[in-house]
Amino acid sequence: MGLKKKNQDFDTGGELMTYICADRGSEKCPCILMEAGQCYTCSMIQTGKCSCMWQGICPYTEYKQAGENPKPVYREREFVVTERKDFSPVLTTVTLKVPLAYAFKCREPGSFIIVRANGWQVPLSVMKSYTATDDEAFGTSEFWEAGRIVLAVNAAGPKTIDLLKRCSVGSIWSLRGPYFSGLVRKEIFNPKALSIVAARGMAIMPLINMKQLIGGNLASFCLDSKKLPESFKEKYLADFEYETIDLENDIRKTACDLMKAREFCIESTGLKPNLLLMVSPYYAEALIREMNIDCSETISPNNANVCCGEGICGACSHTGEDGITVRACKCFEL
User: For residue range 133-180, what is the model confidence (pLDDT) as tens digits?
Assistant: First the structure.
């Protein structure tokens, strides 16, 4: 389950703070942050007063009824590598055989898993998730017994390089997940509206997993593909119509093109389009600044903030001007 509704929750001493949690209302809620008194979207645990607008099952009530015990964190599971494809010295896709239910969960936009390798934790976005209904992917009878998920690995540092050294067909990967906080503000996605995309490099991987969700409503797609091998684009981006751009040198022009596409979508449909900035935080901020829009109108990857995925380790934590420290791997300020 993913994000369901904006949560406008608690007063932190004068200014009303608004947060949303990727896990609220899911099978992982209430989590260990509730036990620690650090659930950012529950005003009861923060102030003792309920002031939220949540319409689902109350996490605080569930926590109390369970004897003040949070839901357990994901346990590790072992899955077999069924295929490895090296598109370049630094870009590899790995296919894992998983239960069908697991594959269905991984279809959620922003899904990612965490692989344990040589003592390290390696977060990887789910690029594709195949189930028994996907004839184009696996047509054998074996496929009806299990699903498949495809992960893209960028050999950028010691963790991913070591992971790929230990990866071959038949090898076993230990992983946790899936987690669903790989996209920031995905709750604003409107399947009835057209979509506009700007993408660059590895940040495009969550978009590929959203192909069926976007469907034929892709109005504009600007792609900086310098880091993507031709063979990769032929296999995974052939169904997308995109315009090639150079974000490093054409930020202003790209922002102008996106704004023109946005205005066209509003004029032709009466709906604001989904604006997906599948780029690094640096380029996302630059595009938002040039477009003169608010970041709350965009959907973007959260991979820069993912470490443990549970909000436990604190590696993704940042403290805002209000003094509130937020675990950005799963909880976002709106």
Answer: 554 544 554 544 679 999 999 998 889 999 998 899 999 999 998 988
CA atoms of 116 and 121, how far apart (whole Å): 5
Within a domain: residue 140?
yes
Domain boundary among 179, 207, 239: 179
Q: What pLDDT was estimated at residue 61?
A: 87
Structural domain containing residue 285: 183-301
Amino acid identity, residue 59? P
- For residue 202, the domain's CATH number is 3.40.50
For residue 2, being part of any structural domain is answered with no
Asked whether residue 67 falls in the same domain as residue 161, the answer is no
d(CA 240, CA 211): 9
pLDDT averaged over the chain? 84
Angle subtended by helix axes 251-269 and 281-291, to nearest 10: 60
Q: Report which of 195, 222, 234, 188 is spatially closest to residue 211, judged by C-alpha positions.
A: 195
